[in-house]
Design goal:
Elements lengths: L3 H14 L4 H7 L6 H7 L7 H11 L3 H5 L20 H20 L19 H14 L11 H7 L3 E5 L8 E6 L2 E7 L1 H4 L3 H17 L9 H19 L2 H12 L5 H11 L3 H10 L5 H13 L17 H9 L5 H12 L3 H8 L41
Parallel strand pairs: 1-3
Antiparallel strand pairs: 2-3
């Protein structure tokens, strides 16, 4: 017997994940108004076989996927009130897609990396405590003491974060994090998909790690002041995680002779893979420069047009855990076939899974729900290879 509530929740989740409104889905089903879809999603209507097949066609799944027992995991909301500048529809789509991905990972039996992300027990309002805690997270992520974080996404994966690409920015935000059944999830806009600079992507991932590690037991902020406080804490964590104070200052003295100039900051950016503007903020945090010096540097940055296009391009980063886990669980000659096998096993269109594994700007992986999961798929264009401009140096001991 079909559980109407489970079917309704699955329909709602896939509809939201694919960015469809109830009215749009109703129109695709050939129905006037959204009354049927609304009743279906709230469990007040049990679909017959014909409607179930039509829903599966439009949502890119099998009828078995829609009719199986629902996933009742607990998920947190993002720790940001500032997402108000982003479309609620887009934010909800990302969160729903996270749930679809989470259930897929469990459903096909992928081996997860254990969650070893430390949780802060100190006072997140204490900047020195954040600096110390960032060092603990670096150690958990197997980053050599004082070393450069060569790949922030891989570091996040090593402590158990599932990191997935995001097709667009969320207003002025480049990332989003939440916990699903306690497990950390990060979504980030990738340079290859959205044109986001690599240094900003790296900082965003570190920022989201900060939210997950410091704010897991907190509800989303309710006021602008509270939101600003949480954001500042995550910013401070990201800065300390990417540029630990002692080695950064040692490098600065060696390479720049103790002067904070734009030329010196460019050289530091080449080593540490962070934005020049972020380095200005970092030197202000560490009280190497005062407010007047920082404002002077910001004016110079603006005058050179570096607010949008800084010199020293940092290469893109990508996640590897999901693709490796898929290839191991569904071994085939290439990832394309592993994706299709895994998707068919779970009852989803392969484009869902492709969207979680493709970091390059490849239009062939956009979710187009015009085929059933069991239908033949067109050949997939290999992901675009992104040129790496700056290769971060191998870690050295300090």
């Amino acid at each position: 017997m079909i559980d109407s509530a489970s079917v309704g929740e699955r329909v709602r989740r896939l509809r939201v994940a694919t960015g469809l409104s109830q009215t749009e889905l109703s129109r695709q089903l050939g129905m006037a108004g959204n009354a049927v879809v609304s009743k279906l999603e709230t469990g007040r209507l049990a679909p017959d076989e014909g409607l179930l097949r039509a829903l599966a066609d439009r949502l890119g799944c099998t009828t078995h996927y829609l009719s199986r027992s629902g996933f009742d995991g607990v998920s947190t909301r993002p720790w940001l009130r500032a997402y108000a500048d982003a479309s609620a529809k887009v934010v909800d789509s990302v969160l729903a897609d996270n749930l679809v991905a989470y259930e897929f990972i469990d459903g096909v039996g992928l081996h997860r990396v254990p969650d070893s992300l430390p949780l802060m027990v100190g006072d997140p309002n204490d900047e020195d405590a954040i600096e110390e805690f960032a060092g603990e997270v670096r150690a958990a992520a197997e980053i050599p003491e004082g070393g450069v974080v060569r790949n922030v996404i891989r570091a996040a994966e090593r402590v158990g974060c599932t990191v997935l690409p995001m097709d667009s920015e969320l207003g002025r935000h480049l990332g989003l994090s939440q916990r699903i059944d306690g497990r950390p999830f990060v979504r980030v806009a990738g340079p290859g998909r959205t044109g986001v600079p690599g240094d900003r992507q790296r900082f965003t991932v570190a920022h989201e790690i900060g939210h997950l590690a410091m704010h897991s037991e907190l509800a989303p902020p309710r006021t602008p002041d509270e939101a600003k406080r949480l954001e500042n804490q995550a910013h401070r964590f990201a800065a300390a995680f990417l540029t630990p104070a002692a080695p950064l200052l040692d490098d600065w003295h060696t390479s720049a002779g103790g002067r904070v100039t734009l030329g010196a900051l460019q050289r530091l950016k080449m080593t540490w893979g962070v934005a020049i503007k972020m380095l200005v903020t970092r030197f202000r945090q560490l009280e190497v420069i005062d407010d007047d010096h920082a404002r002077s540097l910001y004016r110079q940055i603006s005058a050179r047009g570096w607010n949008r296009n800084e010199p020293v391009e940092v290469s893109a980063e990508t996640a590897i855990w999901l693709t490796k886990a898929l290839s191991k669980a569904f071994p085939r000659t290439d990832l394309h076939h592993s994706i299709h096998l895994a998707a068919a096993h779970h009852g989803l269109d392969a484009r869902y899974v492709a969207s979680w594994t493709t970091w390059a700007n490849d239009a062939s992986t956009v979710i187009r729900l015009d085929r059933r999961p069991q239908d033949p798929e067109p050949a997939q264009t290999p992901p675009q290879q992104l040129a790496e401009v700056v290769h971060l140096p191998r870690n050295r001991q300090h």
